[in-house]
Amino acid sequence: xxxxxxxxxxxxxxxxxxxxxxxxxxxxxxxxxxxxxxxxxxxxxxxxxxxxxxxxxxxxxxxxxxxxxxxxxxxxxxxxxxxxxxxxxxxxxxxxxxxxxxxxxxxxxxxxxxxxxxxxxxxxxxxxxxxxxxxxxxxxxxxxxxxxxxxxxxxxxxxxxxxxxxxxxxxxxxxxxxxxxxxxxxxxxxxxxxxxxxxxxxxxxxxxxxxxxxxxxxxxxxxxxxxxxxxxxxxxxxxxxxxxxxxxxxxxxxxxxxxxxxxxxxxxxxxxxxxxxxxxxxxxxxxxxxxxxxxxxxxxxxxxxxxxxxxxxxxxxxxxxxxxxxxxxxxxxxxxxxxxxxxxxxxxxxxxxxxxxxxxxxxxxxxxxxxxxxxxxxxxxxxxxxxxxxxxxxxxxxxxxxxxxxxxxxxxxxxxxxxxxxxxxxxxxxxxxxxxxxxxxxxxxxxxxxxxxxxxxxxxxxxxxxxxxxxxxxxxxxxxxxxxxxxxxxxxxxxxxxxxxxxxxxxxxxxxxxxxxxxxxxxxxxxxxxxxxxxxxxxxxxxxxxxxxxxxxxxxxxxxxxxxxxxxxxxxxxxxxxxxxxxxxxxxxxxxxxxxxxxxxxxxxxxxxxxxxxxxxxxxxxxxxxxxxxxxxxxxxxxxxxxxxxxxxxxxxxxxxxxxxxxxxxxxxxxxxxxxxxxxxxxxxxxxxxxxxxxxxxxxxxxxxxxxxxxxxxxxxxxxxxxxxxxxxxxxxxxxxxxxxxxxxxxxxxxxxxxxxxxxxxxxxxxxxxxxxxxxxxxxxxxxxxxxxxxxxxx
Length: 795
Ligand SMILES: Nc1ncnc2c1ncn2[C@@H]1O[C@H](COP(=O)(O)OP(=O)(O)OP(=O)(O)O)[C@@H](O)[C@H]1O
Hints:
- With 795 residues, the chain is α+β, with helices and mostly antiparallel strands.
- Strand 6 (198-203) and strand 7 form a beta hairpin.
- The chain has 29 helices and 24 strands.
- The structure holds adenosine-5'-triphosphate.
- Adenosine-5'-triphosphate (ATP) binds next to helix 5 and helix 6.
């Protein structure tokens, strides 16, 4: 919101304009060498108020809170502001360089066309300034970018800071600029965009900022200069040595030259000062004859002397050779880690889990560096299908093009960070044209391969992962410890992405399936892979068995596992809702089919008794099927998966499992009519060795019309439904069946009725309550009368 100008008129600056000598004295710092700088700067401000004639604005509330947090922060690593400013400057330079690809004019001429970053110090006025010749900001940009439009990261960052977050991560939230208030109490942003005049943004982080057209500073040509009026305690940032060290540290991977306006002591010959010599002459009158001789000598010498003088010049602080152009063998682990940090703006302590630096040759040439971050961002899956952004930066012949290029990697690999620099793509076309370029398909294909190889490498190098028998006396290396447990870590953070990949990327399904991890009946609390599963399969076992459900603990008790576990078959536990979808796409692996053990079609080798059993229970199965006709039960069969449980309900192969039904029912927007359609047909499977089943069979043979048997059969079915993971559609009906059964076990007659309440007594109680409430309302209406009544009662 705009506040009207002049609300806080600044009289101070007019009453007390800065002294002209001061301005000139400040010239060596190089902020400006213009002779009329003093006049222009007279319009400058005092440190206490913003410019009087500026348009004033309030910060958006979240931004204001963020600034409060920063300005009051006790965070000790204040250096990070410089990293954020350099990074912003570099982004701005990238933008103008990109635009210049299709419009050469845009860069301008002379110094304006130089794409660099310049840092200057003014010790006297305690100003640190960082200037770039990037794209600059229009007045509108200044208003929007620096204060009024809160980015989504703002509140996320504020929230994080309140729960003891790390200020170091500020850049990740897209609010890095505000870190300037760690060291400054007043900041000016002077900016010139090609489409607008030069403007100054200024703020003291006190809830408001001001913008004015800049008619007093040196024209920037194009770009932005950030002037930090440093706080008293931030004096160290006026030391050249400190800045050199910081710039070196933070600009290692900045692809534009960074200069510091650095001082240098030089010896210069100057004419000997005449005043000085005449002084000497005056004093020489009273001096000894020896001195007189010396003086005579001096007169013979040329009238000049050598003095130390401080000069200033631009000193280049960084080496702009891009890391990805170097030979991977020459890049150290530490350099990769630092490169990852600057690329991902992730300055946490943790190292990336893995990286891959390679050159692709052939029809399409490119270099790339890919990283697996140590942690997934919190919102990785929140808007999975709506966000386009991939985290790969695209460069074409060293020129940064974009970081929002969705054609580079499929969505499921969006968690990777890195960059691609291609020599094959054309430079002078628009982003849209580039997006259509045929080489992109090849680049994408190669990137996916490399990315999956890199992920596999985490597993291959993790000592926890290897099957002991596969491990052929590999020497334990010193980084074994470092690599230990890394794949489990990867899986915890990004496992869902691999599953989404299996669903979405048919051409890499097998490669992705290799990366899949799960717990199983035999994994002993660790993660297992499909290859491990296959290596443990029983002779003659054809299928890979799995079960889906809510949690491993619940699944371990599932009746569907009874016989499988008894016979020592391994069953995979899939407990993530996405697993249900996953298994609709993952049909087989290494020629083995997947079999959900709660679905039809489970084969555990031939049992010679099967046929006989089927025959001997024919009466019961037939009878039961017709008794359940109204229950959407397709069939009643003899089970091969039960040991101790009398019966279970399995679903047809292609319909939803019980777990999927539950997931779908819990989705707010699910369509009930579709649910009915997708719900699998149910089959009741009975355990022919179970005494209840045997008894039921006998009773049915004796009297198929027996009401008691019918009821018991229904209760059995309902119980089996529940145990098999289904939600009961009519829990009331189930409960009343149970109570009937309880009655019979307690020898209570099935007709025994619930005792009625005494109606006369109830009527009396009601009348009493009514009278009481009337009394209460009269007492409210006439307090005095009520008081009198009470008094009477008491007397
Ligand atoms: N030197 C600059 N030149 C041009 N625009 C800038 C400059 N510095 C900041 N901006 C603009 O201000 C915006 C806000 O900057 P800020 O540092 O808070 O976030 P960001 O740069 O988007 O995110 P991050 O800090 O993660 O890079 C930027 O997006 C950019 O549009």
